[in-house]
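Hi R.,

Here's the chain you asked about this morning:
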Amino acid sequence: MSPTVLQSFWMLAAGAFYTLLAICIKWGVDTYSVYEIVFYRSAFGILMVLYLLKKKSIPIATPMLGTHILRNALATTNLCLGAYITWLLPLAMAQILNYTCPLFFASWIVFETLMAGRRIHWGLLAALLCGFAGVCLIIRPDVGEAMLIPMLLGLIVGATGGSADWIVKKMGENNEPAERIVFWFVVAGLIVGFAGIVLGDGFHPLDMEGFLILLGVGVFGTLGQYTMTLALKNGEAFLNSVLQYSGVVFSIFAGILIFHDSLDTLTFIGIAVICLSGIASTILTVLSKKQES
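And here is the predicted structure, written out as tokens:
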């Protein structure tokens, strides 16, 4: 098995870690605000990333500061809204809206192709259209206003996440270390989270149960971000596209077993369509790039 293929299995780990993160968020967000969730996730995370930077002797200074700022503006928006919809929606539904990121990632490919005056791969366009049709099966008028608004926010989560992933891929192509990418991400989360707490209701009291939940948010969130970055930067794109949806499968089981979530048939069909379309769009993106080169 090639080293590139092995690196892709970090995406499987990322799916598990992000599911555990979502579980901790659902447990904690009734007591702690979204900004507190973001702050504590980043506070715990920065300690782990600093250890990795020191261990590998990677400097914090980066020649791509402007790119980091753009990426983290998108990523922190994704982080805050992602925590919010995880609170309001069934776990699997919140996760699948977050996992529309590959569809928006592929949309950047289409945009880049159009701007360069090249022909669009018809299969990629068909996969994207099918993926967004799957979104429509989940975000339907009959779901009710209480669910509709969080679902629409979930699309923003997907859009910002897909755009941030696109930038991470570009940074990886320029040999920016994964550890430094994650470091600046947690710094941005620390700043945004603290600002939101100060401007909001302040810090809530922290008991042992709350500490363990927030510790889980920090540890699982950082491990998820780090392992996903490793897979995106070093893995095989074909396998990444399949394994990244493991988090949806984990979330469906976790939602049913832990939170007793129930999803209707159309929602399950929508989830399946989005997963298959996301996989297809990633594979076709790679194929189109190979044909161009």
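One quick note: The chain has one domain: 3-292.

Cheers,
M.
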